[in-house]
């Protein structure tokens, strides 16, 4: 797997200013690489999506990624964020780590896998699923594409999301699940008025403070598999007009849960709504605005985890650690549709920062690990038939 092939493709992608949800020509560049693949563009509203597949049937292994990037302020950068520049073995550009290097490496790996399937007569499917909106709302990205693929009879069995997961060095860390994230904006409505006439007031601040105190005391759980305990945090509390003699009509708080697979949105909502009902009783009313930003998922599948750890060991000689850290990712939408998901990629130390970089020396082993991981899965099923 030649370094120069991956590097050329990466440089071309990095030159496209594909700030979410702009494609800026990236998916055309990717499609141009994939001779012999079945190409489906699934563009939805402002978002461009590409599904490219080779072969058919089980096992269907998909490389998943995004070509969109977060904005970059050129004034904070040493070199132009959209002109890839190499210094001291690092390639600097917006998207270098998150995650155009992952896209470039998986595209090259997929091309080699197609050749291997041909020469070794391997049955199954290799595909690439790439979106132009993971970093912004993501509404028209992988979340929306998965049901469309299902309608077309396409089911992904194994997904390798090429997000940057390494802490320090390539091969130190991968993910086999993610925590869920749930937001609540809670508003308590009382009766406002002069502080000197308490009999006429229904102060909303007392019940809101009590609700938050009760939420803060809950031990949600003590962790699950590789997941840390579920946590509940308050990020905002607003009430009062600034005057010392006015009781306000409303009090508001923003609350967030990061939860492991022991919880669902429904389960958390039930607990919270019960507490709120008990506290508010008849004196005040509560308005809830819930927003789920991602469900929790866990990959308890030996085959894909072993295939990836073996690929890392073969190429780097290191032992891969799996965890469930980080924010949410597109992995959850694949898991929801039955895919076994792992996430693996380059070092994430510089993502979403000025002077984002990827190590040039990581590109070739990265592509080789993706290739070997998929090859190991194909081999597993061939051997066990
Ligand atoms: Zn990313």
Strand content: 25-35%
* SS-based class: alpha+beta
Largest pleated sheet: 6 strands, mixed
Which outline best applies?
A: elongated
Largest beta sheet: strand ordering: 1-2-6-3-7-18
Mean pLDDT comes to 95
Which series of helices and strands comes N to C?
HHEEEEEHEHEEEEEHEEEHEEHEHEEH
The overall strand count is: 19
> Poorly predicted ranges (pLDDT <50, ≥5 residues)?
none
| CATH topology label of the largest domain | Aminopeptidase
Small ligands present: zinc ion
Range of helix content: 25-40%
Which helices and strands, and how do they pair?
Blueprint: H1 3-14, H2 26-33, E1 38-41, E2 49-56, E3 60-66, E4 85-87, E5 90-92, H3 96-120, E6 124-131, H4 142-151, E7 158-161, E8 173-175, E9 177-178, E10 180-189, E11 193-194, H5 205-217, E12 231-239, E13 246-247, E14 250-259, H6 265-280, E15 285-294, E16 297-298, H7 302-316, E17 321-323, H8 331-336, E18 340-343, E19 357-359, H9 363-384
Parallel strand pairs: 3-6, 3-7, 7-18, 8-17
Antiparallel strand pairs: 1-2, 2-6, 4-5, 5-19, 9-16, 10-14, 10-15, 11-13, 12-14
Helix pairs in contact: 1-3, 3-9, 5-6, 7-9
């Amino acid at each position: 797997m030649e370094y120069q092939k991956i590097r050329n493709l990466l440089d071309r992608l990095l030159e496209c200013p594909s700030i979410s949800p702009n494609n800026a020509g990236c998916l055309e560049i990717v499609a141009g690489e994939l001779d012999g693949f079945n190409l489906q563009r699934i563009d939805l509203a402002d978002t461009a999506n590409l599904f490219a597949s080779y072969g058919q049937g089980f096992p269907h292994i998909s490389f998943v990624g995004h070509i969109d990037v977060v904005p970059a302020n050129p004034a904070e950068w040493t070199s132009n964020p959209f002109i890839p520049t190499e210094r001291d073995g690092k390639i600097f550009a917006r998207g270098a780590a998150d995650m155009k290097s992952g896209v470039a490496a998986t595209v090259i790996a997929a091309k080699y896998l197609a050749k291997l399937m041909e020469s070794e007569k391997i049955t199954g499917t290799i595909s690439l699923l790439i979106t132009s909106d993971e970093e912004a709302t993501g509404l028209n990205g992988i979340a929306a594409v998965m049901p469309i693929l299902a309608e077309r009879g396409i089911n992904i069995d194994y997904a390798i999301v090429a997000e940057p997961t390494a802490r320090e060095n390539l091969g130190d860390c991968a993910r086999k699940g993610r925590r869920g994230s749930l937001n609540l904006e809670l508003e308590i409505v009382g009766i406002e008025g002069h502080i000197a006439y308490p009999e006429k007031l229904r102060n909303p601040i007392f019940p809101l403070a009590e609700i938050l105190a009760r939420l803060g005391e809950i031990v949600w759980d003590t962790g699950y598999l590789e997941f840390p305990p579920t946590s509940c945090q308050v990020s905002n509390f607003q009430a009062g007009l600034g005057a010392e003699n006015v009781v306000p009509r409303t009090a508001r708080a923003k609350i967030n849960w990061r939860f492991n697979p022991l919880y669902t949105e429904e389960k958390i909502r039930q607990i919270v709504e019960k507490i709120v009902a008990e506290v508010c009783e008849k004196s005040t009313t509560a308005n809830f605005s819930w927003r789920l930003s991602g469900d929790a998922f866990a990959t308890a599948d030996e085959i894909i985890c072993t295939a990836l750890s073996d690929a890392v060991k073969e190429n780097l000689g290191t032992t891969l650690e799996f965890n469930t850290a980080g924010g949410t990712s597109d992995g959850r939408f694949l898991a929801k549709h039955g895919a076994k998901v792992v996430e693996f990629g380059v070092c994430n130390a510089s993502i979403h920062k000025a002077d984002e970089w990827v190590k040039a020396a990581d590109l070739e082993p990265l592509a080789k690990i993706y290739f070997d991981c998929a090859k190991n899965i194909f081999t597993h099923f061939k051997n066990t038939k």
